[in-house]
Predict the 3D structure of the following.
Amino acid sequence: MVSKSIVEVNENGIGSFATGFAIINIFCGLGLLSQPYALAEGGWITVGLLCFFCAVCTYTAVIIVHAFEEVRSRGGVAESYPDLAMLLGGSWFRRVVQG
């Protein structure tokens, strides 16, 4: 049983610790199967590419978090990516994000 202090659920969903744990769990599970094969096929350049794409994904996540915080600080309500897109780019951008 996990104590409530470790996995806190806020009003928007799971807490940051549980989210980080889930992401690390998925990455480790997939990495155990795919990364050795990718390294064998691509050579050492794949390690550099992996680090580069990890940095790009981290930067993108930071931008999205700042966008949600900016919308909240201006009194807006964005509960999903399409809501955020609607507030930042209008209905056309919302349709692009929704797919």
Summary: Helices lie at 16-42, 45-73, 81-98. Residues 1-7 have pLDDT under 50 and may be disordered. The chain has three helices and two strands.
